[in-house]
Amino acid sequence: MTSESPNALYFASLRRLFERTPALSFVKQTLEELAPGQARLALEPDDRYNNGAGCIHGGIIATVLDGVGWFACATRSEGYWLVTAEFKVNFLEVASHERVIATGELLKKGSELFHARMDARTEGGRHVASALATYTLLPRKFRP
Amino acid sequence: MTSESPNALYFASLRRLFERTPALSFVKQTLEELAPGQARLALEPDDRYNNGAGCIHGGIIATVLDGVGWFACATRSEGYWLVTAEFKVNFLEVASHERVIATGELLKKGSELFHARMDARTEGGRHVASALATYTLLPRKFRP
Amino acid sequence: MTSESPNALYFASLRRLFERTPALSFVKQTLEELAPGQARLALEPDDRYNNGAGCIHGGIIATVLDGVGWFACATRSEGYWLVTAEFKVNFLEVASHERVIATGELLKKGSELFHARMDARTEGGRHVASALATYTLLPRKFRP
Amino acid sequence: MTSESPNALYFASLRRLFERTPALSFVKQTLEELAPGQARLALEPDDRYNNGAGCIHGGIIATVLDGVGWFACATRSEGYWLVTAEFKVNFLEVASHERVIATGELLKKGSELFHARMDARTEGGRHVASALATYTLLPRKFRP
């Protein structure tokens, strides 16, 4: 039994949580990678996400950023629920009709609060958004 | 002809813009009110918006807040496009299976930037979220 | 003995804490008012606070906003320490050579987190800045 | 004449601007490095910056972060003034009686807005804070 095994089991439970979360199917995302303190999600192109100017609505980008920060933190929450306390996002470039890749990185794991940084980029590498978020640890588990 | 007429025509054009914006139908919102520097949107309950804990996902709330701030600013942009430069949202209480009312208020109209404050409350009056945002004026019009 | 007495004693202890906090003397502030869930601070004019353009530096304004949000929350923390988890400030107008009044309002008192909204205005009423912050409750008291 | 020369002259003018800015002497900072799109400032320890718990006040940290983001952007503003439109900071760890190093990185240079990311670390490498900011370009120069 290798040292990766506990993470592999835990990450599988995070993937199942991802699959059964309604909002992550509604704003259709793919969980591309989990690693300790890190996550990567992809948003597939869909014209229903567009704002009036034909670009992906900022709220849709924010939904993916919030989610990827949550999963980056959850890789280190040991089965406990996290809830988003706040997030903040700067929009750098618009994206339109293209895949958007969001990455999340745990900056600090405190006893009650987790801080994360998130970025969104097009597959071509344009930097779409940068974000920071705070998640609160709840005293109940999503996984026994 | 009353002094309300120019606003009435302009607000009608904002309502048409609202109706034809894909993301505002996708995350189904109702434009309840426009007034100079103010807007109110409602998010109808839909279980597809839920996070893994059965509450409305923060990104969905953020989508409505971004939108209501945009419309509050657009009431004063004289037909020019605005783009979200950044926003920040603090989540105060969870909402589940209920209507969420978002209000936006223009705080400052500058020559290039508009600042807005937004709040989301349940119909029962619970304060779900508070937000701040900055919108940039673009040099092109959505309305001739 | 009136119902105000417990608050009066507690607010006196907050005023003593204010008086002995080095940063609040360094960036010279006056604690003008405390009420349950609310606080008001004033920043006296001082040219040492200026940025290169002759206006009060945003960081100095942020210092006062962070402080007034902290005191608004501390009015309801029952003697427990709070620490700033994060804040965000939008700068609406510049201030120069004038008194700046900052107001703080507790938006939500949770079991671990307090959310506050803060605003800064000149004495003439110009809206200088608007802010949101999150404070974390610590398990130790500043007052027995 | 090397390709570095224009930058060297321009960075010298930024250093003179730094030296004559009152707030950067008041909250005593050292401009350690400028490079295209990047800046590094140091805050020297001073007990007058302390909050009531004996740690450096968040507003003082925010002052340095706002400044380092400003200088990172100003390296690319070609002599034009920038003004802070908004900033947001997450506090990860406290710092006390120690040097704090702040780094700023230009994320996006738009026609009107510059976005930057900033971080503060102790000399020992503890991550004190992470921040994002938006700066607006003004149509006047600090340098002819």
From TrEMBL, chains A, B, C, D:
Residues 54-127 form the Thioesterase domain. Keywords: Hydrolase. One of its GO terms (molecular function) is fatty acyl-CoA hydrolase activity. SUPFAM superfamilies: Thioesterase/thiol ester dehydrase-isomerase. InterPro entries: ACOT13, HotDog_dom_sf, PAAI_dom, Thioestr_dom. The keyword Protease does not apply. Belongs to the thioesterase PaaI family. NCBIfam families: unchar_dom_1. This is Thioesterase domain-containing protein. It comes from Cystobacter ferrugineus. The lineage of its organism: Bacteria, Pseudomonadati, Myxococcota, Myxococcia, Myxococcales.
